[in-house]
Amino acid sequence: MARRRFDITSILVVLVAAFLLLDGILSFQGSTAGMSGLAHKISRSFGGEGNTVSIILAVAQISAGALLLLSRIVSIGTLDSILRVGLFLFWLAVMVMSLVLGGNIDRVTTLLWWKDLVWYTIILAILWKIKE
After folding, report:
1. How far apart, in whole angstroms, are the C-alpha atoms of residue 53 and residue 38?
2. Which end of the chain has the least Cβ crowding within 10 Å, N or C?
3. How many Å separate Cα 75 from the centre of its chain?
4. Residue 2 resides in a domain
5. What's this model's pTM, rounded to 2 decimal places?
6. Is the torsion defined by CA of 81, 10, 125, 99 positive or negative?
7. Is residue 105 part of a domain?
8. pLDDT digit string (tens) for 21-61?
9. Domain count, the chain
10. How many CA atoms lie within 13 A of 89 on its CB side?
């Protein structure tokens, strides 16, 4: 009998896809938690009302999540590796924007800022693992 190997990468891909899909859907429902909250802050820092960036980010998240989920079911060729590298770079930009820009660098001494840093870094490590 063939012995099956436990593949954590497939589970991580599905979890990241679910996170992106759910967070994108929450953005359309007006949630200001997670990425949609970041989109509001970015848009308002440039003088906007927060809706345009939220919608763009929500569509990007839902598309990326759906493509990641689809990549587990069917082969999407080179788009798969481009998507994974793109997600890694996107998340790195999100980390910089949420932890450094918008006056958040002043909170470095608070425990909440360090907790956010750890949370973002865990997601970044998962994206690094699945891009291989």
Report:
1. 9
2. N
3. 22
4. no
5. 0.70
6. positive
7. yes
8. 888 888 777 666 656 566 666 665 556 665 677 777 788 88
9. 1
10. 6
